[in-house]
Design a protein that fits this description.
Helix 7 runs parallel beside helix 8, helix 8 runs parallel beside helix 9 and helix 10 packs antiparallel against helix 11. The strands form two sheets. The protein has an eight-stranded parallel beta barrel with strand order 1-2-3-4-5-8-9-10, surrounded by eight helices. With about 300 residues, the chain is an alpha/beta fold. The protein has twelve helices and ten strands. It has one domain: Aldolase class I (TIM Barrel, Alpha-Beta Barrel), CATH 3.20.20.70. Pfam families: HMGL-like (PF00682). GO terms for molecular function: lyase activity. Belongs to the HMG-CoA lyase family.
């Protein structure tokens, strides 16, 4: 009927994207225990933290300590929004850097007070420096499908932004349904196009689960040839600049779906749920993913 991959890579974004908008201050040692448990569960690629201004995102104020105190396992990303963040990340010996720009001008203005073209002009020398230093560069494409201010994005605008990043020599494109409005047809259509345009680049799908469509969108992306997915243990996350956006799709639910249809991830669902249990007591709301509910019921 259709071809699916034998293996898929899970990129865990809970420690950064999942926690960045958490109202409660999470202690550094709790974050480090969470990260260690995720590694023990089989996670080999992870977004650890973000080198943003602590003034704007106080939850990420311990970025240097997180990077320096985490055991190196696989590829570990840190988000750096600008030259200052990149400098801090490199001083902390980060080896893989994620930068981000939204397709939407309005989203970028709300987020970083620059339109898309201005944001890219600012990032160009930053990415060039990172590549000169031999760093792995991940480009995160926000609002690739929909914007909370402008509505539906044109596919050509998303592809055009990806083409600029590709011309800069980035290693990976992480393409995001930032507010969780995409449907499976849109997911398949965009990712099929991106696979055609960028056959040599790592392509990763990043879905939020606002309308409980993330698993369906991941399945559609699989059919389009995508085998890398950003997920967040416990479904943690949200975006301070995307009103109404809920958390990222839950790692444990994605792993369950993939493994149940014969796609190997190398990730242990029970151990992922154990990692979620480490951080849940410190969160402002309880974790409600399907696999986590089943896990906690078994513990009673």
């Amino acid at each position: 009927m259709f071809s699916l991959p034998n293996n898929a890579t899970i990129i865990e974004v809970g420690p950064r994207d999942g926690l960045q908008n958490e109202k409660n201050a999470i202690a550094t040692d709790v974050k480090l225990n969470f990260i260690k448990a995720l590694q023990d569960a089989g996670i080999s690629e992870m977004e650890l933290t973000s080198f943003v201004s602590p003034k704007w995102v106080p939850q990420m104020a311990d970025a240097e300590m997180i990077v320096k105190s985490t055991t190196k396992v696989g590829r570990q990303f840190v988000l750096a929004p600008n030259a200052t963040g990149v400098e801090r990340a490199m001083e902390a010996s980060a080896e893989a850097i994620a930068v981000f720009v939204g397709v939407s001008n309005s989203f970028n203005k709300k987020n970083i007070n620059k339109n898309t073209a201005e944001a890219m002009a600012r990032l160009a020398p930053v990415v060039a420096k990172l590549k000169d230093e031999g760093k792995f560069v991940r480009a995160c494409i926000s609002t690739a499908f929909y914007c909370p201010y402008e509505g539906k994005m044109e596919i050509e605008d998303t592809v055009a932004l990806c083409k600029i990043f590709a011309s800069w020599g980035v290693d990976e494109l992480s393409v995001a349904d930032t507010i969780g409005m995409a449907n499976p047809v849109e997911s398949y259509t965009l990712f099929k196009r991106l696979k055609k345009e960028f056959p040599e680049l790592l392509l990763t799908a990043h879905f939020h689960d606002t309308r409980k469509m993330a698993l369906a969108n991941i399945f559609a992306a699989l059919q389009a040839g995508i085998d890398r997915f950003d997920t967040s243990t416990g479904g943690l996350g949200g975006c301070p600049f995307a009103k109404g956006a809920t958390g990222n799709v839950a790692t444990e639910d994605v792993v369950h779906m993939l493994e149940s249809i014969g796609i190997h991830t190398g990730v242990d669902i029970d151990k992922i749920c154990q990692a979620a249990a480490i951080v849940e007591p410190f969160l402002s709301k309880s974790i409600d993913s399907g696999q986590y509910r089943l896990f906690t019921q078994k513990q009673k």
